[in-house]
Amino acid sequence: MAEALIKPLKLVGLMLLAFSSAMAVSSCHRGFGAVSLLAFSFLLDLGMLFHCLRLYARTPLASPGRPEILKIAVWLLVTMLVVTFFQFLEIWFMTMHREN
């Protein structure tokens, strides 16, 4: 029963993420830097992070070396996501300051 509820919640979450990304792109007046930063952070980085987490969850603990490589990949992807989030905030603050 719980797994049947999780799939629609994942779909709703991804739809909300796509909607908020589209709103962020439209609010930054289609600046190439902001659009590419948003595309990298949400499409590439977050997608790869979800994929690595799914692989990590499916990997048996007894397999040699693979869980450690996936832990490193997840750590790097989360770090890149945090850095791009702070860069996106910087762009947002710069555009808010320019409008006032």
UniProtKB/TrEMBL annotation:
Tagged with keyword Transmembrane helix: yes
Keyword Transmembrane helix in annotation: yes
PROSITE patterns linked to this entry: PROKAR_LIPOPROTEIN
Pfam families for this protein: DUF6490
Transmembrane segments: 34-57, 69-94
UniProt signal peptide: 1-24
InterPro entries per record: DUF6490 (IPR045501)
UniProt keyword list: Membrane, Signal, Transmembrane, Transmembrane helix
Name the UniProt record assigns to this protein: Uncharacterized protein
Organism from which the protein derives: Miscanthus lutarioriparius
